[in-house]
Write a structure and sequence with these properties.
With 393 residues, the protein is of the alpha/beta class. It has helices at residues 16-19, 21-25, 44-56, 66-80, 95-106, 122-128, 150-158, 179-191, 220-224, 233-236, 251-263, 271-283, 285-309, 335-346, 372-392, and strands at 31-32, 89-92, 112-115, 133-136, 140-142, 145-147, 163-167, 195-199, 226-230, 244-248, 314-315, 323-327, 348-349, 351-352, 363-367. The strands form 4 sheets. It has a 7-stranded mixed sheet with strand order 2-10-9-8-7-3-4, sandwiched between helices. It has a 4-stranded antiparallel sheet with strand order 11-12-15-14. A two-stranded parallel ribbon has the order 1-13. Helix 4 packs parallel to helix 12, helix 5 packs parallel to helix 6 and helix 14 crosses helix 15 (372-392).
Length: 393
């Protein structure tokens, strides 16, 4: 049996996903398949490194040394063919923290910041909480696949947008942007002097046959215009250890971001996050390769089950992440009704699509990073609830 088939009891571990589910969904019998962490143990090498560090028993201020820097640099080179310099790297507790710092450091109140909707909910907060203006480039859903409206993208940039937050791979729609798409976005941002803040936290979670390209790796000119935010947290299920990093080739931009990290007290990693990051990047490759195949099989399972058992749900074609975007429009329920249907009838806790923007009103997001037994339970709950609903209507 694969390590990814083992069902772990995560209750009473202060898990946001499991222990807060009864409060979030106002029900005790809901299966949580929502917030983006995995129900899998981290690689054994990571757990061993953490336990070895804990044996020391002293948790004072911890420095980031060349061993950690080298682990990051080697990972990006090997997995993404991206060669970076040590001095380009800054560290922060999380990608969203990094985006907050970048927005404050490199834009001004009132500036327009472009996002491609429907998109990860915190992007809205990152913009609005600093008195910047949200500018939307709505993704176009055609033949069950999302694409970029480049005409609209350029029109929005022409209006004086200062920065663009790129979600690559995209959460929640699962797109892994092709090289030509990345090149065109980068070209237009250079043309209109728009800084790119690239959230690439899902970079390692790509399905077979697909390829993630860091946008900053396309050319030195693009690298100088880009602030890239990455982390092993999604890849290796380390989110609670709060360890991420920022890659910024341009010294002026990097100094500005680092200044704000220092002002906010976010200029170092915690002891365990530091340890886990190095161990994951040094020893986690075989674990990750097995995980990616598991996730690919899970995606295909959900897609096929919905296709075979109901005409009311459709999995949007995706190329990466462990999050599937489900088109529920044929249920003919509004966003509130859809949310309650999944909680009260299906007994599953999903992310409500409208939270990612008005474009997601008829959608739900499901997390498939769980053992197959859990996935099958959740999928069957949804199918049975939908079929019962269809019979009654």
């Amino acid at each position: 049996m694969s390590i990814f088939d083992t069902v772990h009891d995560r209750k009473n571990t202060r898990s946001v996903k499991w222990d807060l589910a009864p409060t979030i969904f106002q029900a005790d019998d809901v299966l949580p398949m929502w917030v983006a962490d995995m129900d899998f143990k981290a690689p054994e090498e990571v757990n061993s490194a953490l336990m070895e560090r804990a044996k020391h028993g002293i948790y004072g201020y911890t420095a980031i040394d060349d061993d950690v820097n080298d682990a990051v640099m080697n990972w990006l080179q090997k997995r993404h063919q991206w060669e970076i310099k040590k001095e380009w790297i800054s560290y922060s507790p999380g990608v969203i923290t990094s985006l907050h710092m970048a927005v404050q450091a490199l834009t001004e109140p009132g500036d327009g910041i472009l996002i491609q909707t429907p998109v990860y909910t915190p992007f809205y907060n990152v913009i609005e909480q600093h008195d910047r203006k949200i500018v939307k480039n709505k993704l176009v859903l055609n033949d069950n696949y999302y694409k970029i409206d480049f005409k609209d993208f350029e029109e929005k940039l022409k209006q004086g947008v200062k920065a663009f937050i790129l979600c690559s791979p995209h959460n929640p729609v699962g797109r892994v942007w092709k090289k030509e798409e990345l090149e065109e976005m980068a070209r237009l941002c250079l043309k209109y002097d728009v800084i790119i803040f690239s959230d690439e936290i899902h970079a390692d979670l790509i399905y077979p046959g697909e390829n993630h390209i860091p946008i900053a790796s396309l050319s030195p000119e693009i690298a100088k215009n880009t602030v890239t935010c990455m982390s092993p947290s999604k890849t290796f299920n380390l989110a609670g250890l709060q360890a991420s990093y920022i890659v910024t080739a341009d010294k002026q931009k990097r100094d500005a971001v680092n200044k704000h990290l220092g002002i906010q007290g976010h200029h170092m990693l915690n002891t365990m996050g530091n340890t886990a990051m190095e161990a994951a990047y040094r020893y986690g490759e075989s674990w990750l390769d097995e995980l990616k195949q598991v996730l690919y099989n899970h995606k295909n399972y959900v897609t096929e089950m919905f296709e075979k058992n109901t005409t009311k749900l459709k999995v949007i074609r995706s190329e990466g992440t462990y999050l599937l975007w489900i088109d529920c429009s044929r249920l003919q329920l509004d966003s509130k009704q859809l949310k309650q249907f999944m909680i009260q009838k299906a007994k599953v806790g999903l992310n409500t699509g409208v939270d990612y923007g008005s474009e997601g009103e008829k959608f739900m997001r499901i997390n498939i990073a769980c053992p197959r037994k859990t996935l099958e339970d959740g999928v069957n709950r949804i199918i049975n609830a939908v079929n019962n609903h269809t019979k009654k209507s």
